[in-house]
Amino acid sequence: MNQPVLNVVVARRRDEALGIASFELASENGQALPAFDAGSHVDVHLPNGLVRQYSLCNDPRETHRYLIAVLRDEAGRGGSKAVHDLLREGDRLQISAPRNHFALADDAAHHLLLAGGIGVTPILCMAERLAATGASFDMHYCTRSKQRTAFVERLAQAGFAKSVQLHHDDHPGGSTFDIEQTLSNAPAGTHLYVCGPRGFMDFVLETARANDWPEDRLHYEFFGAAANQPATGGSFQVRIASSGATIDVPPECTVVQALAAHGVEVITSCEQGVCGTCLTRVLSGEPDHHDSYLTDEERAANDQFLPCCSRAKSPLLVLDL
């Protein structure tokens, strides 16, 4: 399967904070880029062959550019280091068209935007959109220190600056983020959006659920899989519905890897069960879900799974491929 790509050029690179750089991507031919909604991301095909997802953090009304920001993670899987070490102004890249798994709820009475570290990227885009439409919102941006806080100048100059509060862990006597108070002060009908490190997000979501926030008012996007997520399991088989071919999936091998070894390509991006790029329909059998993408209801339906990380509880899965 071939995924449509856009040809872009790195029009500008800028250091935004300690370890964080932003990259402005423009169409290679100077034409307008496809429109996107707040919360969207693109897949970036890096020069070293990796494909990684990055949220768009510019105003969705802009059609001349996409803006991404990337934190260099020395302990990561190589994507962020490749971005920082290899991408320069003038470089040409291929990216996917924008996709959105983290959309704003248009009918919400109020929006509570919570960003942790580099998780500010989709949250900032949301703030731009909400401000442009006159929607009611508050934004809290939590970082380890001011040095590690990206887009400080942009936020200070924004028309919605009064709706934003910054919280730094190392600021003595500064504004400490109080999740309990923030949730209790939220107007009735508020929708919550959170993005950032896994620990930050789990803390926010667990606190909201403990305070009886309904699940349909909690919106989130994970950057990485849970640290304790199982990655292996026993042997099973997958059958390709279109051809009838049956393929063994041994331990220590993902479904994606087993399929690729037999010439069946499934497009992937994060390879951690986070992004949903490889989502595949299951026609028969019971998946063993290990992703961070599907909801509990979607998992219970057992009619789709993410073959980059999930496996099977039944001996055979029949896939709609």
UniProtKB/TrEMBL annotation:
One of its GO terms (molecular function) is vanillate monooxygenase activity. It is an enzyme of class 1 (oxidoreductase). InterPro entries: 2Fe-2S_ferredoxin-like_sf, 2Fe-2S_ferredoxin-type, 2Fe2S_fd_BS, Beta-grasp_dom_sf, DmmA-like_N, FAD-bd_FR_type, FNR_nucleotide-bd, MRET. Gene3D superfamilies: 3.10.20.30, Nucleotide-binding domain of ferredoxin-NADP reductase (FNR) module, Translation factors. Its cofactor is FMN. Residues 236-321 form the 2Fe-2S ferredoxin-type domain. Residues 3-105 form the FAD-binding FR-type domain. PROSITE patterns: 2FE2S_FER_1, 2FE2S_FER_2, FAD_FR. Keywords: 2Fe-2S, Flavoprotein, FMN, Iron, Iron-sulfur, Metal-binding, Methyltransferase, Oxidoreductase, Transferase. GO terms for biological process: methylation. Its EC number is 1.14.13.82. Pfam families: DmmA-like_N (PF22290), Fer2 (PF00111). This is Vanillate O-demethylase ferredoxin subunit. It comes from Paraburkholderia atlantica.
